[in-house]
Amino acid sequence: MRTKLLAYSEDRSWAAQIKSLSDSIKAEASIFLPKKEIAEKVSGLYEEIYYSDLENFDPLAYISAFFEVAKLLSPEVAVFPCTGKGRILAGLFSAKNSKSVATDVYNVQSKENNLIAKRLVYGGKAEVDLELKIPATICLLHGSYVEAKANVESRFNKVIKPNASCRVIFTPKKVEGMEPDKAEVVVVAGRGVKTKNDLRMIMELAELLKGAWSVTRPLAVDEGWAESWIGISGLMVSPKLYIGIGVSGQPHHMMGARSSKIVVAINKDRNAPIFDECDYGIVGDLYVVLPEMIKKLKNMKQK
Amino acid sequence: MKILVALKPTYDINQLKFDSEGVPLLETCPITLGEADKCALEEALRIKESNKAIVIAVTVGESQSHIKGIRDALAMGADEGYLIKMKNAWNISSIAVAKAIASFAQLTGPYDVIFTGAGAGDTHSSIIGPMISALLDFRLIAGADQVEVSENMVKATCKMEDGTYYYESDLPVVITVTSEANEPRIPTLKAIIRSKSMPIKEVDPSVLSLSVEEFKDLKVLKHSIERKRIILEASDQKSAEESVEKIITFLKSEGVI
Ligand SMILES: Cc1cc2nc3c(=O)[nH]c(=O)nc-3n(C[C@H](O)[C@H](O)[C@H](O)COP(=O)(O)OP(=O)(O)OC[C@H]3O[C@@H](n4cnc5c(N)ncnc54)[C@H](O)[C@@H]3O)c2cc1C
Q: Hey, which of A44, A68, A291, B61 has its CA 20 to 30 A from B15?
C-alpha cells in the first residue's frame, strides 16, 4: 500500500516542493491550504486539495481544520514548510497525532515501514539521520526539493471553518523592492555595513542584479533597518545567487541561505566563517569593493 | 497566578568544533541556558513582580548543565526549580520532552501560563511550546516579541514571515518568547548566593507515567555543502578592481547574473 502524505502550504511554491518530496517516496499526496484563493493556485499539483476559509493566522484554528482532513485520510506522514508558521503547526499536530517529528529536514527516504530523514542541527553545522516511526510529522527546509510540475486533475474539497481561539490583528510586512524568498538573487547586508544610509549601496546592487536585498538579524532587530532578515529565525531563502556583504556567516544566519546555488562573500576578515561556505569571496573593505562592483555592473548594463 | 517556565540548556553552536572525522566535539562546547529561554523566564518574573505570581522552573535532564540551568533560573528569581530526571536528555525526542513537561504541569499545576523560549539555541525546532499547548489543551501564543499578561488575558505581538500578528487570548495559555522580547536580568551576587541554598527538586519520569523512547542511531556529523571557496584579495583599489572583474566573470559563466 502506498504511504499517505498530507501537506500543508500557504503558496504554490511550497506545495510544489512538498509534492516533489512525496513523489520521491512514492507517496499518495493530498494537501490542505487555509484559503480558497490559495488552494486554486495549487491546481494540478495534487489530486485532492482541501481548503477552508481561515483568516489571519490563528494556530489552533488552523490546526483544527488541518486535523479535520487528517481524520478523513489518516496520513502516515504530515509535511509542513519549515517556516515560523509551519513549525508551530507541526508542533501542534505531532504532539497528539505522530510517533515522531523532525524539523529542518532536507531529505526523506522510505525504509521498510518507516522513514529516514536527514535533518540539520546546530544551526546547519551538523546533520543527523533519523529513523522516523510512522505516523510522522516533518518540517521541510526550503529549496530541498525542486518544484514538481502540475500533471493531475485536482478535486477541491471544502473544510468547515473552525472557531477562532483568539483575537488576531494582522499587519502585513512592508516589502521594499522584491521579496527575498521569491527572488533569484539576494543581496544581504551584515553588521559590516555601518549606517542605514549605506544600505542604499546594497539596494542598488540588488536592483542592478534584478534581485532582492535583506539583512542579518542584528541589523533588523537591534538597528531596526529592515522588517525581516535571513536565517533560521527569519526568512529561509534558496536563490540562484546569494551575496553576503559584511556578513560574518554565523550558523544561524547561513542556515537560512544554505541551499543557495552560488554563495558570494565580501568581508574584510579573511577568517570570517562565511569564507568556508562560499563559492566566491573577496577579502576586502566593502566600502571599496562594493562601489567598484556597482560601477562595473552599471557599465555592463550600458553596453 | 501560577506560572511554569520550561528551560533547556543549549550548546553555544558558534563555538562548536568538529574532529577530523566530522564528529561534533560536544564535550568541549560551552553550554548555557538558551537566550530565548532566559527571556521567557524574564517575562514570568515581571508578571510575578507586578501581579503576584509563583514561578516554577523546570528542565528535562539531569546532567551538570541541567542542574546549573535550574540554579541560574533560581538566581534570576524563580521560586522553585525542578529537574525531570532523564539520563540521555540530549537524545530524547521532542515529543517525549513535551510529554514530560506536560505531565509535570498536570502533576504540579494547575498553571495559568506556561512559558518557554521560542527556539533553542542549538536545535531551534520551535515545536516544544506548541506541543505542550496541544497536549494540555491550552491556548497558544507562539513567537512573542512583546507580551503582556493580566489576570485573565494575554496580549502579545509576534513577528512572522509575512508580517506582524497581534493576539489577544484567554488563559490558560502556552507562550513561547523570542530573544527579542526583553533584556533578561543578570542576578545579583546576593541572589546567586541565596539560590545556592535553595533545593532543586527531582522528579522521576515514572511518576509522570511516561515511556521514554530514545533516538536510535543518532549519528550526528558535520554538514558540509560543496562550495568552490575561490577567495580573491582586495587590499587596495587596484586589486579590488581586478577581483571584482574576476568575480563578475565567474558569476556570468555560472549563469547566475
Ligand atoms: C537562537 C539564535 C537564532 C539566530 N537567528 C539568526 C537569524 O535567523 N539570522 C541571522 O542573521 N542571525 C541570527 N542569529 C544571530 C547570529 O548568530 C549572528 O550573531 C548574526 O548573524 C551576525 O550578523 P552579522 O554577520 O551581520 O554580524 P557580525 O557577526 O558582527 O559580522 C560582521 C562582519 O562584517 C565584517 N566587516 C566589518 N566591517 C567591514 C568592512 N568595512 N568591509 C567588509 N567587511 C566588514 C566583519 O569582519 C564581520 O565578519 C541568531 C542567534 C541565535 C542565538
A: B61
